[in-house]
Amino acid sequence: MHMTDRGLLALVRHEGIVPGLYFDVKQVWTFGIGHTAAAGGPDPATMPRGMPADLDAGIREAFRVFRTDLARYEAAVLRAVKVPLEPHEFDALVSFHYNTGGIAKAALTRHLNAGDRAAAAAAFMGWLKPVAIRQRREAERDLFATGHYPAGTIPVWSVDRNGRVDFSKPIRRLTEGEALALLRPASVPIPRPSVPAVTPEPAIGWLARLSAFFSTLIRKA
């Protein structure tokens, strides 16, 4: 089971995109779309600081790392949850786990595995540190309970060499279409079998055969 396109967009919108090394709210070195060393390589602490010289390349790298991370978080949710899930429920749980890393120990998972979806939805609000995360947690709870997906553009933020993100104004906003193209890059086209080239016949040879054909008709007449 994998996140839906709308679920992916919601998750990236929650995280935002910082195409450089930055400190998160817990003062942990982070890169791109919420990537930390806890998710595996690359270790953000070893990456160059400041904004990339090529912003587009930096954004593509952020999405590349995110796609690798996402597979781990999806797998962790599937291991922890023992009951069938609707796509919007899975989307909400992966978003929650991507942010908290707590799917295996969360009360919401215990409630869900016990068949109490209402209690599971309410338990999303047991994870409110830092306080600024409340709006995201409410959105994840509502997505889990009702299938309501947020919408809108996705911000790209700048960061200085000290890891401080400038949240005053995004330097770019990605449309949903642009983000999806980066989330699900097109597969490499399968090359078609080569067809031997046909060498064009010189015009003089074609005219010579045509002349011979008409000469034959005249003789027969």
UniProtKB/TrEMBL annotation:
Catalysed reaction, written as an equation: Hydrolysis of (1->4)-beta-linkages between N-acetylmuramic acid and N-acetyl-D-glucosamine residues in a peptidoglycan and between N-acetyl-D-glucosamine residues in chitodextrins
Protein name: Lysozyme
Keywords per UniProt: Antimicrobial, Bacteriolytic enzyme, Glycosidase, Host cytoplasm, Hydrolase
InterPro entries assigned: Bacteriophage_GH24, Endolysin_autolysin, Glyco_hydro_24, Lysozyme-like_dom_sf, Lysozyme_dom_sf
UniProt record similarity statement: Belongs to the glycosyl hydrolase 24 family.
EC id: 3.2.1.17
The keyword Cell division appears for this protein: no
